[in-house]
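Hi X.,

You mentioned you wanted examples for the new student's onboarding notes, showing what a folding record looks like when two proteins sit in one file. Here is a clean example. The first protein comes first, with its sequence line followed by its C-alpha cells.
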Amino acid sequence: MDEDRTAGDEDARRDPGPPSGGRDRHETPLERADRNFGELLQELRVTQTGVQILFAFLLTLAFTARFPSLDAVQRATYIATLLLAVLAAALLTAPAALHRALFRRGAKPQMVQMSSRLATAGLSVLALALAGSVLLVVDVTAGRAAGIAAGAGTFAVCVGLWGVLPRLARRSLTRAQEEGTGTPPP
C-alpha cells in the first residue's frame, strides 16, 4: 500500500494515534491509513463472498419451476431483495473502484474514510437483503406469517451482531480506557 506515499512522508512525525492501553503503534498518519485500508479490505473480502452467494441464489430463483406460482407479494419481495443484493454488492465493491480512481493521489486517509462509510452502508443493505431472502423462502415454504417472523428475526440478528454488539464493545473499551485499565472487563 505504499503507492500513496510521497517523499516527505518518510520523515513525517510519528503519531501514536488513539489510546490503546499502552500498546501505541507509533505509526505515521499515512501508515495508519495504509493499515486501516488493508484491514477494511480484509473485512470486505468476507462480506463480498456472502453477497455473491446470495445474489447467485436470487438470480437462479427466477428460473425455477415454482417461480411462476409466486403471488404478487412474493414477487415484490423477490424483486426488492434482488435489488437490495445488487446494491449491497455495489456498495461493498465501491472501495476497490475508489482505490483505483485515487491511486497514487496521496488521498489514502480520505479513501479509508469514504470506504468505511461505503462498507457500513453495504452491511446495512446486506442485512435487508438477507432478511428479504429469508422472508421469501419461508413465506413460500411455510406461509406468510412465518416468513415475516423469520425475516424480522434475521434482520434483528444482523442488527444485533453487526450494530449493537460492536457499539457495546466499543463503549466497554472506551470505559476501560477512561478508567485507566486499557482493556475491557471480561
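Then the second protein repeats the pattern, sequence line and then C-alpha cells:
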Amino acid sequence: MKTRLPLAACALLAALSLAACSGATPPPPTASSSAEPAQTPKATVATQPADDASRPPAAAPTCDTLVTKGTVDALKSQGWTSKQQEFQIGDVPVTDGLECLWADFSTASDHGQIYAWGLLDPAKARTAQAGLQADGWVRSSKGDSVFYTEDPDYAIAKDDEGFGMTYEFGDGWVKFSDTKQGLVLITWRQ
C-alpha cells in the first residue's frame, strides 16, 4: 500500500517552515487617528508547536481547540470540517475527552485525520493498555510517556518514521492520532 501524507499536513509544514524562516521584524507602528494602534503579530521560532501555548484553556476541549490553531487553519483552508465523537479505547471510555475526525465530508473519501485527547485514571489506563497489547499494538516509551502504535504491517497511513495510529499515555491523560507524528499537534492542556 502506498504511504500518503495528507495535503493539510503538507500545507501546515510549509506554513510553519515559512514562519520559522522569517527573520524580518515588523515596522514600528505609525500614529493614527484611532485610540488603539494596530498590533502586528511577531513571528517566533519554537521547537514545539507553540502557536497555541498562550491560548487560555477553555472549559472543555473542542475540535477547534484540541490541536494547534495552525493545524485547524490548514484543515479548514482545505475545506475540511470536523465531526466530534466520544473518545474510547476498545471498551474503555475516556473521561472528559473527545475524538475529532477532520475530513471533507461532502465527498466520499478515505482521506481524513483523527485527533483525540482525554483524562484517564491509572486503573483505566492499565486496562486500556492491556487491551491494546492483547490486540497486537506495539508498545514503546519515551520519558514519562508510553506509546501504543498499531502493527505497521496493517497501518493504512504512516508518518515519515513508519508509524500509523498511535496512543500516547501520560500522567492522567491520553492522546490519539492517526499517525505518531500527529500527536505533537495535539496541544490541549487541562
